[in-house]
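Dear colleague,

As promised, here are the two records you asked about, laid out in our usual form so they can be pasted straight into your sheet.

NAME FIELD: protein one
SEQUENCE, THEN STRUCTURE:
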Amino acid sequence: MTRPATEPLDLGRFEEPAILILTSLLEQPRWGYAIVKDVEAVSGVHLGPGTLYATLARLEARGLIEGLPSSDRRRPYRITGAGLALVRGRLERMRAVADAGLSRLAGA
């Protein structure tokens, strides 16, 4: 499968949790537990600690999110401009697929 040139970043097997986390961070900066709870509320998906923190590390290493200073042990993260661009492209592509699928279902 090839991706458009405007979306060169391959998130691999972390694509789904990455999009869920980036979507959560669109609203405001959040720390791990707050991300887990928001993702569950929006999607019904529970991110375990291993998946959550591995995905956060990958997103941060790729410059898609950044950690913010913390006054306690909770480390908040916020989405970067690169993260905004990536999640916008992925969500638009997902919407196009969902629209096509729902249209085809209506005709089935």
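NAME FIELD: protein two
SEQUENCE, THEN STRUCTURE:
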Amino acid sequence: MSKSATSVKVFAAYLLLLGLALVLSPNALLRVFRIAPTGEVWIRVVGMLVLVLAFYYWNAARAGLTSFFRWTVAARTSVLLFFIAFVVAGYAPPTLILFGIVDVAGAVWTALALRGEAGHRTA
């Protein structure tokens, strides 16, 4: 398995854990990040969507879909920008930015791995 595929697979595992937490015990996770608890179904719907993303990431990594890996770099980087905007607009507490930092860290890992793999192909 390539380094870029490994980075995406690790991110898929993170998404799996996050999705399970949001589906099974969302308020426990929200409390850790000082986000107001909710009894509404939306948080579990978000968890289900995160689980679907985990499935896509995991299987793309297994299949070595480097084009998918490249797409995720831009998408995961944008998450931090959106979360910062939500905090600045007063829609969310600053702790939400921590989730965006995880996304950017994973995106950087994937981007560096892709760059290294491209360098090996041309050498």
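A couple of things worth noting about protein two: The mean pLDDT is 94. The helical segments are 3-24, 26-32, 42-63, 66-88, 96-122.

Best,
R.
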